Amino acid sequence: MSAVQPLEHRIVKSRFALSDLVAEAFSGMLARPGRTMLTILGTVLGVVAVVATLGIAKTSGNQIVSRTDELSATSVSVSNRSEGGFRSPSNNVSSIPWDAEDRLTRLNGVVAAGTMTRVDTSGSLVSSVPINDPLGQSEFAIDVVATSPGLFEAVLSELSTGRYFDEGHSIRNEPVAVIGSGAATRLNVTRVDQQPAIFVGDTTLVVIGILDDVAREPSLINSVIIPNGTANALFGTGAPAEVHILTELGAAQLIGDQAAVALSPNEPETLRVSVPPEPRILKSGLQDDVNSQFLILGGISLLVGAIGIANVTLVSVLERVGEIGLRRATGARRRHIAAQFLAESAAMGLVGGIIGASLGVLVIVAVSAQRQWTPVLDLYVPLLAVPGGAVIGLIAGLYPSWRASSLEPVDALRGGT
Amino acid sequence: MSAVVELAGVGRTFAGSPPVEAVRDADLVVEEGGYVAIVGPSGSGKSTLLHILGCLDTPTSGSYRLRGIDVGGLSDGDRTSLRGAEVGFVFQAFHLLPYRSVIENVMTGLVYNRTPRRVRRERSRQALERVGLSHRLDFTPRQLSGGERQRVAVARAIAAQPSLLLCDEPTGNLDTRTTSAILDLFDELRTDGLTLMVITHEERVSQRAERRIEMIDGFLGEAESS
Ligand SMILES: Nc1ncnc2c1ncn2[C@@H]1O[C@H](COP(=O)(O)OP(=O)(O)OP(=O)(O)O)[C@@H](O)[C@H]1O
Ligand SMILES: [Mg+2]
């Protein structure tokens, strides 16, 4: 610089407006669409792999919760904290009210609920013949359980024959019973159409239904089940010991929080509520190794994609030496040349990111449709994939654009076409 | 009248074994509106001199002032800005962008020198009209003849409205009729104050110039203007 002459102010500095930069970048890219598409193929594949892997992992993770663990993810049970549960009843200290079923079914998200209490029969055996058999071969030690009618649905039981008892049976203290399939076999009861009787000690009960299977409370298979009212009238059974709740999918946590207060507004802390583990904990861990392999593959494709862009940009710099010389001659500074090639490679990466993210989402939807899953994807994944592609293109363009900008204009003009 | 070009003892030596002294001890002053033809045998240093005049290259000795500004004292960036604002080039090779239309090629010459976007197209259209290519605006260079390409290059150089126009064989590919059209255009531009320096082998072209400079083996000499 000359210190004597203040020359610089007489020189109008050249500039390269942002709008021109963008226009140049895209027309450079669109000048040869076929080549551009091939160039960004690697980036597209990499972005597709990453987006699809993350999306399918999320989708199938959700599916694992809703299918495999539906059983436990919808089950809530409540018992008294102070005792050992319904196996060791101690009458009249339970905080669970008789109308527990009504209180709970009013809650949003509860499908069914029912109480369950072991009936203390003072050691009476159960038989299907009215005579006391001295040999004891027709008398069995079978549990007698008192429930509210909603329990059957709440524990997902199935009838093999007959019917369940209802609220009317309970109110009228009718001596009816539903027996589990195991108990039925031992008592030799196979049909209910002729109102077979069973005997608990001296008490006669009419069997109105036989359970086939009980998904959630298998012990009921070997039990005699009678209405709460009947149990109270005939055996003096106290307040319910335990409540089982079937919730809608995903509502278990919420119901778990609300159940204790609904049952015992004054002293909810005396109740122990069991809910299934959080779905978030359930789904992790299952597919992690598969996912990381796909993510590694995606990363490799992205790397290859970046190298592809770098390579083609470098070739295009060498092809366009004359253009570079001409731009330098018409006032483009080194940084303007660098910016142009950087913008071109970033634009290619950006387009690769857009196409890749779109295809990735399509892959997720297609796979979900084929497996009849509900597609789930965090929105930020495809939204980040787009600028991610641009950054990859930008990095890929660093070396070629440095090469382009370090060309001497005279050499560029001499060597050009 | 002020001097546009002032060369004092300018030399340009290319390093190598042996080094090439492409321009030696050149002294030259060209006034505003001047029209100089540079002639001389191949390899005599004409293009090298032109590059120095256009601030594309710097002398290895001596000093060069363009419109009073000492080019040797400028940074690379300022030199670039100066040539973008003051100098138009028509090169031996045209350096057209093969995938852009004719008018877009001309508009490229206006990108860096602060010409507002919206006037670029109109100015480029006018420049193309002056070289007689109004009917080829949307062609690509591949679809043009050699002479048409050369005229696009001329249009691109004059669209930027430089104060110094440097041409390396601007009529090399033109027929008699288009050559005289271009020479008429040059005369026209001079009356607007443009300074013109033209390398040529053609007698017809150098005769239209007001001065003829002959280069032989890197040395500059004023030749008889006939
Ligand atoms: N970058 C360079 N390195 C070494 N030598 C060079 C370089 N550029 C030009 N020269 C040499 O300088 C001399 C002058 O070259 P220049 O291109 O100026 O000739 P010219 O007069 O324009 O010739 P022509 O009429 O054929 O275009 C030549 O001998 C050439 O080999
Ligand atoms: Mg030459």
What features would you describe in this structure?
The complex is a heterodimer of chains A (417) and B (226). Chain A is built from 16 helices and twelve strands. In chain A, a hairpin with a 2-residue loop joins strand 8 and strand 9 (203-214). Chain A is an alpha+beta fold. Helices cover 50% and strands 16% of the residues of chain A. The radius of gyration of chain A is 38 Å and the shape is rod-shaped. Chain A has two domains: 17-67 and 281-416, no CATH class; 71-276, no CATH class. In chain A, strands 1, 2, 3, 4, 5, 6, 7, 8, 9, 10, 11 and 12 form a twelve-stranded mixed beta sheet that branches. In chain B, the strands form two sheets. A six-stranded mixed beta sheet of chain B has the order 6-7-8-3-9-10, with helices on both faces. In chain B, strand 9 (211-216) and strand 10 form a beta hairpin. Chain B is globular. The A-B interface holds A 1-2, 5, 7-8, 10-17, 19-20, 24, 27, 31-32, 322-323, 325-334, 336, 409-410, 413, 416-417 and B 51, 54, 56-57, 69-70, 73-78, 80-85, 87, 89, 91, 93, 95, 97, 99-100, 104, 108-109, 111-114, 117, 156, 160. Residues 46-47, 92, 168 of chain B line the site of magnesium ion.
**At the fourth CATH level, what is the homologous superfamily of chain B?**
P-loop containing nucleotide triphosphate hydrolases
Main sheet record of chain A: 12 strands, mixed
The structural class of chain A is alpha+beta
Largest interface: A-B, 37 and 36 residues
What is the number of independent domains of chain B?
1
Major β-sheet of chain B, in short? Answer: 6 strands, mixed
Biggest sheet strand line-up of chain B: 6-7-8-3-9-10
- Taken in chain order, the helices and strands of chain A follow as HHHEHEEEEHEHEHEEEHEHEHHHHHHH
Provide the helix percentage of chain A: 40-55%
| Series of secondary-structure elements of chain B, N-terminal to C-terminal | EEEHEEHEHHHEHEHEE
